[in-house]
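User: Show me a protein chain along with its predicted structure.
Assistant: Here is one chain, sequence first, then structure tokens.
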Amino acid sequence: MATRIIDKGKVEGGAVSICKRCNKDEATTSIRSEPVCLQCFTYYVNTKAIKRLETYKDRNRQSEAKRYLLPLSFGASSTSLLHILDEQLRKQSERMGRTSYELVIAHVDLEFEDEAASKKVRSLWKAVQDRFPKHTYVEVSIADALDIKSIDWPSLGLAVDKQLPKKERLANLLKSISTATSRSDIASTLLARLLVSVAEKNSCGSILFGDSTTRLAEKTLTETAKGRGFSLPWQVSDGTSPFRDNLFFNYPMRDLLKKELVAFTKLTSPLLADIVIPVNTKSALSASSKSTTIDDLMTQYFESVEENYPSIVANVVRTSSKLTAPEVNGGAECTLCGIPVAEGTDGIDGWSGEQSSSSQPTKEVASVRPILCYGCARSING
């Protein structure tokens, strides 16, 4: 088992299980297969995140902005990260009278939920601000991504009627994409671009994503299957973002499994579970294959794998983290996702097999068509 809550530390036969870390208190939880007490488990989760955060100091030293953007989805991972960082800042303030950084909490309204779900999200957003009042809060709509000036929608062949409200424009744009996976991919791309825009507007030097080990493993296989394997160094590894040198992408929860974080939300005081939206992956999968995305399948797969084989999940992330971002000299940026694209490798033509100059469009043709990475070209063309 990855992480489980043991009923009052009892095991078969009525014996009490003792924590394997402190060898003193009664074990009420387990880390992977190791029974631990509540205090040791909480210390384990906090330490993993804080130690990872400490490694960013030297890396981010050149960035004058001591502000971190934390995207909040109300999932167990991002909510746990907010709780841990809020506690760290509180202790810093009490001990030194100051803090080493500021947090900007961003929530993106995905605009896809029904009214009941939207009402629930609004309630949670207020509850989070009440519980963690010392931070800056920013709420934006995914439809605001349509205002990003570097995305030239007409050149992409995607109709965007500027006379309509942004929410309707986005809905119509996504409806024009033929497959569920492509629609999900475009929405994820817009979300990433929007978060970068929010970070820039709020002078943040780093975006702290709450992705767990499990989530990063999902992304590794998902992005590869969607033709975005080249972007993995930015999507699963700590380091400079592909958008500007003084903006970093960091993943402080990368050493913790999703199951561990779900358990953590049920053990804090007050409970974090009260401000977390639970997700039942199995019930979320549609019975119709047309509505099921690659993301859905990978999420279900890795959640089942981490239950009994957590080391496999961790190995996927460790392996993908060894990838380095390619040096793109003389290239351009993808019109949609903004990722650097090497000259002659853009679009589906650039990865059609033969990578010779004769297989590429002529410069005259290339000059009138948008620059797209392979992943975006696949999504736009279904």
